[in-house]
């Protein structure tokens, strides 16, 4: 073996080990990225999720929302039925500080402070967080007055 043979062998070894190291690094990097995505996949998915989703009538997520068609004014519906459809969601539960049906004290106060006309007007035009016409967008003014009478009669 002469000098140049040795040199060639050495260069060969350097090249081989160089490749080995590169391969090792590449393996590590690849492995690393796989591990990261496995661990953080859920977190990333969570972060990338749209902030709000829109729920439309007909979507499965909208099943709990009453259908608008059933909220439209229907001459045949009694005030009690209209109450169920358009007002109960809030006035049965007291959600958002809605005066609960049957709460005599609260309804007496309300009647005294503005009179029944004020209550009618609030049902028709809304009051603070109480939406105008509640959920009964198709109700006529007279139907709303009748529903208010119904609520008041149930709260005496
Ligand atoms: C989304 C919830 C919600 C729905 C639906 C709703 N209300 Fe209300 N209602 C409220 C809240 C909240 C208040 C209290 C508002 C306040 O005093 O600031 C209120 C107050 C009232 C008052 C008292 C107003 C006053 O002047 O003191 C009447 C009367 C009334 N609602 C009638 C109705 C009728 C009739 C319906 C159905 C057609 C209805 N509401 C549907 C939330 C609701």
Structural write-up:
- It is rod-shaped and about 115 Å long.
- The protein has helices at residues 3-48, 79-86, 88-91, 104-125, 141-153.
- The longest helix has 46 residues, at 3-48.
- The chain folds into two domains: 1-49; 60-153, Orthogonal Bundle (Cytochrome Bc1 Complex, Chain D, domain 2).
- The chain has 156 residues and is mainly alpha-helical.
- The chain is 60% helix and 0% strand.
- Bound molecules: heme C.
- The site of heme C has 27 residues, from helix 3, helix 4 and helix 5.
- The site of heme C (HEC) has 27 residues, from helix 3, helix 4 and helix 5.
Please tag this protein with its features.
156 residues, mainly alpha, Cytochrome Bc1 Complex, Chain D, domain 2, 2 domains, 5 helices, 60% helix, 0% strand, rod-shaped, binds heme C
Shape: rod-shaped
Contiguous uncertain segments of 5+ residues:
none
Instruction: Classify the helix fraction into a percent range.
Output: 55-70%
Order of helices and strands: HHHHH
Based on CA atoms alone, the radius of gyration comes out at 36 Å
